[in-house]
């Protein structure tokens, strides 16, 4: 269709235009990238072809295997892209991000005005060279960061996977790798017909999750047979829910056709890791449709609060520039072509808004980033966003992940409590001896009535310990896996239960730590499949147990159980373990459970209650019949199954309590204390359970000992949320613990009230948080408080939070590098965060504030001199300094001393770490405020006026003498002011001062066009310059001395 064929109706024209754009996207795919970067929303709803463009609505899909004629639709490219720009949008994007700020746009217009003859005041290079220098530095910096980001993405996207060629959709074989796309699990090489999955990059937990293949494809003799069957997978539309999935698998070439339901147990989400064996899966979602991608927000271009404040100050300076120009024209009574005079004065006083400010600040940021990377006390720290280091100096809220960030995610067994006796780490040898005697002494089965009294007591304790250890060794979902170690073959190791080749796999590190502990005391789990379990005693005997039923742990039930039959005795036992809050009502009455659970929880231990119930054959058969009947029910299945299980969960024998500790990262407690003393409120956002999160908060001293904890009750309705908020409102100075579901309800109905109460808490713990919820909390904190936030995490589920925060810090740990690659700053340990904020953040902010205000002072000085000069000479729009003088003033004559302020510091790094209260002063933004800005403006006006009036009073006969006296005094004044501003001298500062002075003296030989070389060699010139310089600087030195003497700042008290 041609342009002439377009209809005249506006509505029809828009519709035709949309179809035309879609046709363009189909013909030229790269245009889609260009337009997508500018976020033209109307393209997304243009026509049915938009799905081809990759922008359609998400819909359910059918993935065909063995049907080459039925490829229903194309999918987005399956690549990771953390870049802000692409090849086509880099230059326009960088220029737009620069000129969208008033500061740079002003100088662009200023430079362009010099092409108009009536407005030209000097050579073009005096305006275009500084602007070009600024843009080149910015473009080079952004290009370097984009290239680094591209290389990191390319490394991840270049991972090689084994692909099975099919006549239909793609089948991939994954061996101990990250899953490349969202897939349906079809087949595994594991003998037990299942595999374990690490979901660290998805939900932040390194606990292994059990996954099951599709039954009919697992039964195929070989993986190659997958290429011969005709089948299809029906999958729901892509969504962000990582815990649920609905789909079906249908095999058409069977007789009759096989139809199986698919759930979350049959899925392999992208970014998870296959922990055991080889798996084969069919791809259902790619690219932007991946669960992990949909739970990750798009990276945004972060602009620091400091940059916004500087931009605001430049607007004030521009307002002053306009006012001064209007006053000058008004004093001429708007004579002649006064509007041209206004523009000439705007150009003449353009130094009021210093173009060198942006250059100095950008170069300062690069120096600060270099200092962070080179700090030997925080090795491995990487700065990925060099534009916001000063943000680290003004953080008010720190939001941190738990697993892998505060903790190592390594569980260690700490305590076994039997009610009358407790065993800690220093007494585990006693437990080991009890277990050893239970299986080695032939008299351990002797009835108690036939033993002496003393032996009876001893054997009673021994039997209790043995029964507790055996229960812990049986009630779990741990699977031992044997791997070849280079010496022993895998099959041989599995046959002989080689200890050196055994690795435990489980869905929870708690269970692994318990099984490892039972191994350490003599009862070892050596084998397990779906139906049986094998334990090895200290004497080497193998105990065989048949697994009759397993009741897995759920967040709702807070317990798990197992029914086993001892093959040697035929005894049927029902073992159960769970949280004390639910087990207290299940076990028999006792008077010590609640007290001891509280004592262990206060020590930061994760407590589990272990119980047992012996069943007769008749009791079990009756239970099994009712259980199977309940599982076959179609309506209210879960309720009926729970009712049947609860019939067994009565009057169970309490065996023991176990205490497991999730080890903290090194120096987490002192780091959190430093942050708290610095005025930073710490919120912990985790996907883990409420009890686990609460224990970690106590153990890490996120919640201090004298603080109460308010656990927000689970709410589902507006009324419940209202009542719970009122109950919380009555609490004072207490930490808040809330689950993700309750948080969502509160934010839906009472967002303002909840955030107001939460912000008053000394600490907040949010558990069961989805990745998008974490980002939402960060966003709400920014909107409601206006304070700066810092997000810290180590998993892929933390990426959204990290990118949403004003400062994102990634911790390189066991959960991969996805968080650290997407973060602004990357550290290797959480403890490095203290030095990153207290030392580097504080220094970066204070140095940037001092540097920016001094650059403004430098420009205001020369602008004041120009204003005095013009007013004395009848308000003429004639420049005081021309050509190289005006450029040299901001570059070689004063650039090095002024820029050396990036090395200045008020206190040593050790003092900043020792007294984190110094950081609290920065939260109010005092180093760069309207007050300090006004002080520097007044200093600039004073010094500029003194220098210019002094030169006018003391010059003799020629105008060049005024230029020589005033310019030399100006240079010396700036050098002395740098020395006055410096608080701690660095040898490079002295070099910069001497180098700049030498450059000026040496250049006088070549400046005969502007300065009388013979005059500057006279004694008259020297004393006049000396007097003017002393009058302009000496009063400020005196004021500084008096202030430090009678009203010293806080940091000076620490350094004196």
Automatic annotation (TrEMBL):
The active site is at residue 401. It is found in: Golgi apparatus, trans-Golgi network membrane; Membrane. Belongs to the cation transport ATPase (P-type) (TC 3.A.3) family. Type IV subfamily. InterPro entries: ATPase_P-typ_cyto_dom_N, ATPase_P-typ_P_site, ATPase_P-typ_TM_dom_sf, ATPase_P-typ_transduc_dom_A_sf, HAD-like_sf, HAD_sf, P-type_ATPase_IV, P-type_ATPase_N. Its EC number is 7.6.2.1. Residues 67-127 form the P-type ATPase N-terminal domain. It comes from the Eukaryota. One of its GO terms (biological process) is phospholipid translocation. SUPFAM superfamilies: Calcium ATPase, transduction domain A, Calcium ATPase, transmembrane domain M, HAD-like, Metal cation-transporting ATPase, ATP-binding domain N. It catalyses: ATP + H2O + phospholipidSide 1 = ADP + phosphate + phospholipidSide 2. The keyword Transmembrane applies. Mg(2+) binds at residues 401, 403, 794, 798. It is a multi-pass membrane protein. ATP binds at residues 401-403, 511, 553, 577, 606, 686-688, 768, 774, 797-798. Its cofactor is Mg(2+). The chain crosses the membrane at residues 308-332, 338-361, 855-875, 881-903, 933-953, 959-980, 987-1007, 1013-1039. This is Phospholipid-transporting ATPase. Residues 821-1048 form the P-type ATPase C-terminal domain. Keywords: ATP-binding, Golgi apparatus, Lipid transport, Magnesium, Membrane, Metal-binding, Nucleotide-binding, Translocase, Transmembrane, Transmembrane helix, Transport. GO terms for molecular function: ATP binding; ATP hydrolysis activity; ATPase-coupled intramembrane lipid transporter activity; magnesium ion binding. GO terms for cellular component: endosome; plasma membrane; trans-Golgi network.
């Amino acid at each position: 269709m041609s342009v002439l064929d377009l209809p005249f109706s506006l509505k029809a024209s828009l519709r035709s235009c949309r179809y035309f754009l879609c046709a363009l996207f189909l013909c030229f795919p790269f245009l889609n990238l260009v337009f997508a970067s500018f976020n033209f929303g109307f393209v997304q709803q243009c026509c049915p072809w938009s799905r081809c463009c990759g922008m359609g609505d998400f819909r359910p899909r059918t993935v065909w295997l063995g049907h080459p004629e039925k490829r229903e639709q194309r999918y987005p490219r399956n690549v990771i892209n953390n870049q802000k720009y692409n090849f086509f949008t880099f230059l326009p994007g960088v220029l737009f991000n620069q000129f969208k700020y008033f500061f740079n746009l002003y100088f662009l217009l200023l430079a362009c005005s010099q092409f108009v003859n009536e407005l030209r005041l000097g050579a073009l290079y005096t305006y275009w060279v500084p602007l070009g220098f600024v843009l080149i530095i910015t473009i080079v910096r952004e290009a370097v960061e984009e290239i680094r980001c591209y290389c990191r993405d390319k490394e991840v996207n270049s991972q090689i996977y084994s692909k099975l060629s099919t006549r239909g959709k793609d089948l991939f074989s994954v061996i101990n790798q990250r899953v490349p796309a969202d897939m349906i699990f079809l087949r595994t090489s594991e003998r037990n017909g299942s595999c374990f999955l690490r979901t660290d990059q998805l939900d932040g937990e390194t606990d292994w999750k059990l996954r099951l293949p599709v039954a009919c494809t697992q039964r195929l003799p070989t993986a190659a047979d997958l290429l011969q069957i005709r089948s299809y997978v029906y999958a729901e539309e892509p969504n962000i829910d990582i815990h649920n999935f609905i789909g079906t698998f249908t095999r058409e070439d069977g007789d009759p056709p096989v139809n199986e339901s698919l759930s979350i147990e049959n899925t392999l989400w992208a970014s998870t890791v296959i922990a055991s064996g080889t798996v084969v899966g069919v791809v259902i979602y790619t690219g932007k449709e991946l669960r992990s991608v949909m739970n990750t927000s798009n990276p945004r271009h972060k602009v620091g609060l400091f940059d916004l404040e500087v931009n605001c100050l430049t607007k004030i300076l521009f307002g002053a520039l306009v006012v001064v120009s209007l006053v000058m024209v008004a004093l001429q009574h708007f004579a002649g072509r006064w509007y041209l005079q206004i523009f000439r004065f705007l150009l003449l006083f353009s130094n009021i808004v210093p173009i060198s400010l942006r250059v100095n600040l950008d170069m300062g940021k690069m120096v600060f980033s270099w200092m962070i990377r080179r700090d030997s006390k925080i090795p491995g720290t990487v700065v990925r966003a060099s534009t916001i280091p000063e943000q680290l100096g003004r953080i008010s809220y720190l939001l941190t992940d738990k697993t892998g960030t505060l903790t190592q995610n390594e569980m260690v067994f700490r305590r076994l409590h039997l009610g009358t006796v407790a065993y800690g780490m220093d007494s585990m040898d006693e437990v080991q001896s009890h277990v050893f005697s239970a299986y080695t002494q032939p008299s351990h089965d002797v009835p108690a009535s036939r033993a002496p009294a003393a032996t009876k007591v001893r054997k009673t304790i021994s039997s209790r310990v043995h029964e507790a250890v055996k229960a812990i060794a049986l009630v779990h979902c741990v699977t031992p896996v044997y791997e070849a170690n280079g010496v022993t073959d895998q099959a041989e190791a599995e046959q002989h239960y080689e200890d050196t080749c055994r690795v435990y796999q489980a869905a929870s590190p708690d269970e692994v730590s318990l099984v490892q502990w039972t191994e350490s005391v003599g009862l070892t789990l050596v084998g397990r499949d779906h139906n049986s379990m094998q334990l090895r005693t200290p004497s080497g005997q193998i105990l065989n147990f048949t697994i009759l039923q397993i009741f897995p742990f759920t967040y709702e039930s807070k317990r798990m159980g197992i029914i086993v039959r001892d093959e040697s005795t035929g005894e049927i036992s029902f073992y159960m373990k769970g949280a004390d809050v639910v087990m207290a009502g299940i076990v028999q009455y006792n008077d010590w459970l609640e007290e001891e659970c509280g004592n262990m929880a206060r020590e930061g231990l994760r407590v589990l209650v272990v119980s047992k119930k012996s069943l007769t054959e008749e009791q079990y058969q009756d239970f099994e019949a009712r259980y199977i009947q309940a599982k076959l029910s179609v309506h209210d299945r879960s309720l009926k199954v729970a009712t049947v299980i609860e019939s067994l969960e009565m009057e169970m024998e309490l065996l023991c309590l176990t205490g497991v500790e999730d080890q903290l990262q090194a120096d987490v407690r002192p780091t959190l204390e430093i942050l708290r003393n610095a005025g930073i409120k710490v919120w912990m956002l985790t996907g883990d359970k409420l009890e686990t999160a609460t224990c970690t908060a106590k153990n890490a001293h996120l919640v201090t000992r004298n603080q109460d904890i308010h656990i927000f009750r689970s709410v589902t309705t507006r009324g419940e949320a209202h009542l719970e908020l009122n109950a919380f409102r009555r609490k004072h100075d207490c930490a808040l613990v809330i689950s993700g579901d309750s948080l969502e309800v509160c934010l839906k109905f009472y967002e303002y009230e909840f955030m107001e109460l939460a912000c008053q808490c000394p600490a907040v713990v949010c558990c069961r948080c989805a990745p998008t919820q974490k980002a939402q909390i960060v966003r709400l904190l920014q909107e409601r408080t206006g304070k700066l936030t810092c997000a810290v995490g180590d998993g892929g589920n933390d990426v959204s939070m990290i990118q949403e925060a004003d400062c994102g810090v990634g911790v390189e740990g066991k959960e991969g590098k996805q968080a650290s690659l997407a973060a602004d700053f990357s550290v290797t340990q959480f403890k490095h965060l203290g030095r990153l904020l207290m030392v580097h953040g504080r220094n970066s902010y204070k140095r940037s504030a001092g540097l920016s205000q001094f650059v403004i002072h430098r420009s205001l000085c020369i602008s004041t001199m120009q204003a005095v000069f013009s007013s004395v000479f009848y308000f003429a729009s004639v420049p005081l300094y021309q050509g190289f003088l005006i450029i040299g003033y901001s570059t070689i004559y004063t650039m090095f001393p002024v820029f050396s302020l990036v090395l200045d510091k008020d206190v040593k790094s050790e003092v900043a770490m020792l007294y984190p209260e110094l950081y609290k002063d920065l939260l109010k933004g005092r180093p760069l405020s309207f007050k300090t800005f006004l002080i520097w403006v007044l200093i600039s006006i004073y010094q500029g006026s003194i220098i210019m009036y002094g030169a006018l009073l003391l010059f003799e006969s020629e105008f060049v003498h005024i230029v020589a006296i005033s310019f030399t005094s100006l240079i010396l004044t700036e050098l002395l002011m740098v020395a006055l501003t410096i608080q701690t001298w660095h040898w490079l500062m002295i070099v910069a001062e001497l180098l700049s002075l030498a450059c000026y003296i040496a250049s006088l030989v070549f400046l005969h066009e502007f300065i009388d070389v013979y005059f500057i060699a006279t004694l008259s010139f020297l004393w006049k310059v000396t007097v003017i310089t002393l009058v302009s600087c000496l009063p400020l030195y005196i004021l500084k001395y008096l202030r430090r003497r009678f009203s010293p700042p806080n940091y000076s008290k620490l350094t004196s």
